[in-house]
Amino acid sequence: MLKINQLISGYGSVQILNGANMKVEKQSIVALLGGNGTGKSTILRAASGLIRSWKGTIEFNGEQIQNLPAHEIVGKGLVQVTQGKDVFPAMSVTENLKLGGFILKSKQQLLDNLEKVYNYFPRLNERKDQLAATLSGGELQMLCIGRGLMSNPKMIMLDEPSAALAPQIVLDIFKNINRIRQDGLTVLVVEQNVRMALLLADYGYVIKDGVINVEGDSKKLMYDESVKESYLGGTKANV
Amino acid sequence: MFNKLRIGKKGENIIFGTFVLLYIGWCVNSPDMNIESLKSVLTIGLSVGIIYGLVALGISLIYTGLDVVNFSHGEFFMIGAFAGLTMFNLLGNQDWIFNIFPDAYGWIIYVVCLFTAFVSMGLFGVFIERVFLRPLTKKGGGYTVAGMGIIICGFGLSVVLINVAYLIWNPVAKPFPAELGLPMEIGGLFLPITYIWMIVVGLSVAAGLWFFLNKTKMGLGIRAVAYSKDVSNLVGINVPLYISIIFGIACAIAGIGGTLVGPTYQVVVFMGYIILMKAFAAAVVGGFGNLPGAIVGGFTVGIFETASSFYISGSHKDLYAFLLMIVVLMIKPTGFFGVQVKMKA
User: Fold this and answer.
1) What confidence category does residue B5 fall into, taking pLDDT thresholds of 50, 70 and 90?
2) H or E segment at B325?
3) B341: left (phi over 0), alpha (psi -120 to 50) or beta
4) Distance CA B317, CA B92 (A)
5) Is B220 on the interface with A (CB under 8 A)?
6) What single-letter DSSP state applies at residue B238?
7) CA distance A74 to B68
């Protein structure tokens, strides 16, 4: 579904990605793991068109999408879900969600999708008239994922959905991500919380210094010595 | 000084209230104070204030949307007035309009002039933004980063636009003899009908903008772009297009302001500068970047300025707006409505 080939990109004159290769199959959950400053988020930002790709290709559904304007990439069905703090705080929850469906032409479609999101996250329905600024961290993350789902995407890319959240809430959100996959979407999830992400994902990539260092089945990655050493703190993951 | 004392919101309001009471006391003590002069002060203040408010609205809109202060906004106001005047001169000697609408002839032409100023300034604003400001953002990486260059570009544009207008229309002040009817009597006071037009049209434009921003899909998009360009991109909003729309709307509103002022005063090449400064004061008083605050600030500056020139001294008329701005900045730096919604920590 998404194929990233020898991608080179960065900010200003600083090169972050040094030729990354990735492949995300249809209806799968793929985890992209790595420490701070390794280029995880840069891959997402290049794929969603927020920064330019200097070299290499990004293919989505067989079409090359690198360096298209960001709003056209959303129109093709590839949506990035930002971290929970990136909502519009002075708007209500419903308005935030309606913005997610900005590219939809018909009003009925918008209301249907709103219903669908409230079905995934009943908590948002309870708070639909509140300002987004008054939500808790977990609710904000739900709002961000819900906003991403509003435009009928084929694939969503999540940028650290577990950042700064309590384990119970992370579990809840990851359950919902699994539900979204079962409903036919493809998911790419960028995470620092390696253990949780590998439990959720089918396949994993580990990025280091702007290139993919290790890749493989998530069950295999969990017992991989180099991953364990670098990211799991040397302890054995209990599955 | 006030920061060190940590007087807080309540203290700010008390000190500001004391200033207001002192000022009212000064005005009441003036020998010119009577009910007649008070009525004139209110109507003139409100009608001038709405003009300041309209220009301040544009400045605030551009500030929230593009994160820059547009120092050439007064010139859009001035060219808007000339656009309205040009349309007026074109239609003024057309007999067929008079033959079709013998009774409503004057105000139909005036409405067409307002509409012309609105549309032409909107298109002109989009043109200026695309040709002169957009290239700066490409080099600097977005509006927020390129801010300083755009501010200086705004100053330059202001000089250029004044001189272009000078070449086209020459520096002689021109009358705008719109035939809107006889003065109207309200509460024993005879008001030129142009004052009523200013207040009614100005408030309708402000209300229309509120409706547009809060009730339409495009308005929702504009509010989103104003808050965050990146997140707006990610939900599929065409951000470059929306930035042009924001600039265009702000300029169109300034154009209407110019055409509204025309019949009461005169249309002259240098009218933009002082209006820009006073609108700036109005925006600061209402809370910079706050749209309802811009209109309230406009009214406050207008009434304060008119009352002061009536009751204190008429020869320093242009001083009072800035005096008010300085007092507000000292005591309530956020202005009347400068409260932003913050994220829960």
Assistant:
1) low
2) helix B319-331
3) beta
4) 34
5) yes
6) -
7) 28
pTM: 0.85
The separation between the first and the last C-alpha atoms of chain B, rounded to the nearest angstrom, is: 29
Contact A66, A4 (CB under 8 A): no
pLDDT at B145: 56
Cα(first)–Cα(last) distance of chain A, in Å? 29
What are the structural domain ranges in chain B? 36-331
The C-alpha atoms of residue B106 and residue B90 are separated, in whole angstroms, by 13
Q: Closest Cα of chain B to A45: distance in Å? A: 10
Q: For residue B188, count CB atoms less than 10 angstroms from its CB and return exposed for 0-12, middle for 13-18, buried for 19 or more.
A: exposed
CA distance B272 to B268: 9
- Measured CA to CA, the distance from residue B233 to residue B95 in angstroms comes to 52
Predicted confidence band of residue A234 (pLDDT cuts 50, 70, 90): very low
- What burial letters (b/e) apply to A200-222, b meaning 16+ CB within 10 Å? bbbbbbbbbebebbbbeebeebb
The verdict on B345 touching A (C-beta cutoff 8 Å) is no
Angle at A30 between CA A26 and CA A36, to 5 degrees: 145
Question: Is A99 touching B (CB cutoff 8 A)?
Answer: yes
Burial of B60 (0-12, 13-18, 19+ CB in 10 A): buried
Q: Please tell me which of the candidates B220, B235, B342 has its beta carbon nearest to residue A133.
A: B342
Q: What distance in Å separates the CA atoms of residue A1 and residue A30, rounded to the nearest whole number? A: 12
Establish if B166 touches chain A: CB-CB under 8 angstroms. Answer: no
ipTM: 0.83
What's the pLDDT at A229? 63
**Is residue A89 a contact partner of residue A166, using CB atoms and an 8 Å limit?**
no
Taking the Cβ of residue A100 and every Cβ of chain B, the question of whether any pair is shorter than 8 Å is answered with yes
Substitution target in A42, A71, A106, A150 with the highest count of B β-carbons within 10 Å is A71
Searching chain B, which residue's CA lies closest to the CA of residue A152?
A: B235
Supply A110's token pair: 């918008």
Contact call for A74 and B220, based on CB within 8 A: no
**Mean pLDDT, residues B149-156:** 84
Over its C-alpha atoms, chain B yields an Rg (Å, rounded) of 21
Report the CATH fold assignment for B36-331. ABC transporter involved in vitamin B12 uptake, BtuC (1.10.3470)
Alpha-carbon gap, residue B148 to B145, rounded angstroms: 8
Task: Kindly tell me the sign of the dihedral angle through the C-alpha atoms of B152, B155, B158, B161.
Answer: negative
Residue written as tokens 């903008």?
B209
